[in-house]
Amino acid sequence: MKANFDEKRYISEREFDAHMAIVKDWTNSFIRDTGEAPTYYIRTFGCQQNDRDSELAAGILEKMGFRPGASPEASDVVLFNTCSVRANADNRFYGHLGSLKPIQKGERPLIGVFGCMMEQDIHVNAVKRTFNYVDFILGAGAARVLPYAISQTLLSDGAKRNTIDLTDWRGLGDDTSLPVWRADPHRALVTIMTGCNNFCSYCIVPYTRGREQSRSYEMIVEESRRAVERGAKEIMLLGQNVNSYGNDLRRRGKVDAPTFAKLLREISRIEGLWVVRYMTSHPKDLSDDLIEVISRESRVESHIHLPLQSGSDRVLRRMNRRYDSAHYLDLVRKLRSARDGIAITTDLIVGFPEETEEDFEATLRVMEEAQFDAAFTFLYSPRVGTPAADWYDESQQEIVRERFKCLVEYQNECSLASNKKLEGQVVEVLVDGMSRRDETILSGRTHDDRLVNFPGLLMSSFTCQEWSSNEVFVPHEVNRGDVVQVLIESAGMYSLEARQIQND
Ligand code: SAH
Ligand code: SF4
Ligand code: F3S
After folding, report:
1. Ligand that lies nearest to the alpha carbon of residue 239, given by its number in the listed order
2. What does the angle CA 141 – CA 144 – CA 149 come to, to the nearest 5 degrees?
3. What CATH number does the domain containing 450 carry?
4. What gap in Å lies between CA 130 and CA 98, rounded to an integer?
């Protein structure tokens, strides 16, 4: 594990500007020489926290004169934003990084790696040793350090470039001054806090992201307002445990620091917003005040993601989750009676060390009672440096896989039953864009966060001739970020098929 995350050095405003200027000079001469702007490509792994950090990194690159590239191979700067939450996240990153090796010859791109994996010595050392064509390494949430890293790389001797290790530097917790390049203009990811204090015994996040640090209330509201003024219909408030928002400020003496419930209410009242989402909620901190806001404020999503992890009280204790199954089910009951039709989704871990058949059955029982509308199910993955990794017994793998299969099958039934309830209903959908597989299908999400596909074309993607009434299908005028009404025709386990019934 790296030295304490919270003791890292900050890049000052002045240093940030100075390094930006160096890189900007370089991009200007690149444009003079080639007639084109240099390009960047960012591959992001992991959670929305990382998505948001990549949006900041993209904003900074844009400001320095870079433009998006079509692929890693065709870009001048390639960045990997890594995640370490489970072993498959680590492995995917190494696979992608390895595949860049062939393009390092000649005019190779500048390659940088940042994010949660780079908070762990074993990965930092592995990158330096095995992938020495990586130019620089930064830690988690370190977008602000990017100009420094790129300027150092440009100034270093091109032929013998060694990997520059800047993992001792970090960005400020409150990076409001940074430019953001939003992947979806209609959806604003807004970080409300970073880090985590919970130390669930299986989880790496507290080690990679440091302690909880809340952003200022005013800055969050201001950023959200600005995003809505510029066309955002959805705000997604982000934190590893949004319910403990403000606790760090209160501990430091700001006794009247606003709670998450107050913040959520304020954001939900921004004029022009369609929905405010938030994640993740921790069952031990979900307050009655928050349930009240969920029940009263119609723009607060009709959905909550509330990770259960396990239904066995014995396992929950060993996970250090600090709630039991009775408390969890009590919350489910309160939420369902507070907001009619609220969708409740969860995370479940199968095969936590020393999980018994009885523990597993307890999880199934809680699932039966809670009737989750959807669930992310994970096989336990030992993470070096966490307490549970020392208790791991590999010989259990086969039995754990059986349990996993059984749990997924049961949840699939529940997800389908939940989606089926919408068949024949007219619902509103916020359009995200074209489906990846078919250009004539649009996809979007309902207020309760279900994925909906329906035939349609984006305004920007067809010409006037295509408006002929002889067409079998006459498309409605739809843009990304529009809210449209659709009739749900059929339900699947993971999505709904629909037909648009009215222009918005
Ligand atoms: N802060 C959030 C989510 C953190 S990571 C929360 O507490 O809910 C997202 C999910 O990954 C977790 O909810 C958990 O289900 C899963 N996860 C985390 N560490 C894991 C591990 N070592 N093995 C398997 N799943 C893990
Ligand atoms: Fe990990 Fe637990 Fe913190 Fe979530 S609350 S990030 S699972 S330590
Ligand atoms: Fe992964 Fe870090 Fe998020 S470990 S889940 S990217 S906080």
Report:
1. 1
2. 105
3. 2.40.50.140
4. 9
Task: Measure the N-to-C terminal CA separation of the chain; round to a whole number of Å.
Answer: 52
What pLDDT is recorded for position 468?
Answer: 38
Whether the CB-CB separation of 292 and 347 falls below 8 Å is answered with no
Q: How many CB atoms lie within 10 A of CB 207?
A: 22
Length of the chain: 504
Residue with CA nearest ligand 1 atom 2? 240
**Helix, strand, coil distribution of the chain in percent, nearest 5:** 40, 20, 40
Q: Report whether residue 347 contacts ligand 1, using a CB cutoff of 6 Å.
A: yes
For β-strands 110-115 and 343-350, DSSP reports them as: unpaired
Classify residue 125 as exposed, middle or buried by CB count within 10 Å of its CB (0-12, 13-18, 19+). Answer: exposed
> Residues 385-412: pLDDT tens digits?
999 999 999 888 999 999 999 999 999 9
Distance 354 CA to ligand 2 centre (A): 20
- CATH code: domain of residue 61: 3.40.50.12160
Same domain flag for 37 and 146? yes
- Could you tell me if 167 and 209 lie in one domain? no
Q: In what order do the strands lie in the sheet with 343-350?
A: 303-305, 343-350, 374-379
447 and 376 fall within a common domain: no
Q: What is the pLDDT of residues 72-120, one digit of tens each?
A: 989 999 999 999 999 998 999 999 998 887 665 456 789 999 999 999 9
pLDDT for 463: 40
- Bridge partners for 169 per DSSP: 9
Locate 214 and state its tokens: 């809340």
Structure tokens, 346? 């969860």
Tell me the pLDDT band of 161, cut-offs 50, 70 and 90: low
How many domains are contained in the chain?
A: 3
Using CB atoms within 10 A of its CB, is residue 389 exposed (0-12), middle (13-18) or buried (19+)? Answer: middle
307 lines ligand 1 (CB under 6 A): yes
What does pTM read for this prediction? 0.93
Q: Are residues 148 and 239 in the same domain?
A: no
> What does DSSP assign to residue 425?
-
Residue 194 bridge partners (DSSP): 213
Nearest ligand, CA 382: 1
Distance CA(411)–CA(405), nearest Å, equals: 10
In this predicted structure, what is the pLDDT of residue 157? 66
Question: According to the model, what pLDDT value does residue 172 have?
Answer: 62
Q: What separation in Å is there between the alpha carbon of 28 and the centre of ligand 1? A: 43
Please indicate, yes or no, whether residues 254 and 391 belong to a single structural domain of this protein: yes
Question: What single letter denotes the amino acid at residue 28?
Answer: N
Distance CA 385, CA 314 (A): 22
SS3 348: strand
CA of 394 to the centre of ligand 2 (A): 23
